[in-house]
Amino acid sequence: MWFVIAVIALLAGAALLFLDRRGSSGGVRDRRRWAAARGWEYQETDPVLPSRWRYGTIHQGGPGVARDLISGDVPTPDGPRQAYVFDHEQAGRRSSVLAAVQLRDPLPAAVELRLPSAPLPDDAGLDLLEPVGERYAFVADADAVRPLLTERLAAAGDQLGDDVELLWAEESWVLATAPLGSDSERIQDLVADLSEVATALERAARSTTR
Question: 5 in a domain, yes or no?
Fold first, then answer.
């Protein structure tokens, strides 16, 4: 009896592993096709790229590794922007899809915009500032960041959707997390919405220096 149960459990585990691998492989092919159609590059693994950033999920779980990375330029009215999309692996486990879009100029300080459903940041250098649309702003420097929290930024952040719990900006990048398995259409929308977040931050930053 116990032998039969063990065999059944083993077969069930193998079936689940096969389905997981097949789904993952399908997602990789989908991402490869999406990248190829837009002239982006695909890279299976990059162990260094995530260490470029320090806030958001990077602070929470460590830099980790970029898996199934695609990179290229996003066309915008202000010109192309560099972008990355990858599965973020931390402690040997893929935790989320991470997308990053480059700003033209560095920001004066970091800001995280979190939905109420997202965990609170565990970074002692970030303080709660104020609501920004449907999200709450946690900032490294309130005086430097407050002028950047415009209505346009709030609208751009809300446009990301409820599946994107965490949006943040640091130095010359805006980043966001999406659930694992997000398809190519969702990735395309996410990158486009992050480009609008980048534009909102840049316009606000320029207005403060005039």
Answer: no
